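Sample intake sheet
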Amino acid sequence: MRKLTVLVVVCLLVLCLAPGVSAEVFPPIGGPGQDAGEPNPNLKLWGKAVDIHINGEWIVKWKDALPFIQEDPPWRTMVPVRFISEKLGAKVTWVQEEQKAVIELGEKKIELWVGKNTARVNGEEVELDASIWLQSEPAWRIFAPLRFVTECLGGKVEWTPPGGLSKSKVYPGQKIAIDEVVITYPAPAE
C-alpha cells in the first residue's frame, strides 16, 4: 500500500511540474480520415486556436506559423500571409526596404505594411480594423486578417463559433470545440 501511495504522489508531482501540452506545440488533430502529421515543437500560438478549411481541406500542416484569433477586440482571425495566399494560388513578395508584403493573383494586387492598419488593393487605400504585424519566432512571418486577404482575392469566408447551438459547416451535425473558419475559393456566384 505504501508503494502505491508513493507512486501516486510521484505521478501527481510530475503532472503538476511538467509543462502542459497545448496548441502551442501540437497543431489540431486531423478530422475523420485525415492525418494531422507530426507535431512541430517550434510553432507558437499567439492567440485563440482556430481550425481553417479551404475548399473542404482541413489545413492542419502549417509550415512555421499557426493562425489564431486575436484575444482582444476586434477579434480577427490572423493568418500567415504567405501560407494562406499561396494556398489560394497567389504569389507573395516581400519588399524589405518598405517592410511590405505584396500579394498578386491575376489582376488583383494587395500591399500590406507591417505595423499599419491600412492596405492598398489594386492601387486604392483601404483601412483595416486590425494592424498587420510581424512575428519573429520561430520564423519571420507577416500576419494579416484572414477575411480581408481571402475576400480581396475573390474567396468567401464563413465563421462558426464553438459552443451553444453551433454546428460544424464541414462535418454536419457535429458540435465544434474551437472556432471554425471555412473558405470557399473562388467564392460561389450569389
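Comment: The first strand starts at residue 50 and ends at 54. The first helix runs from residue 2 to 17.
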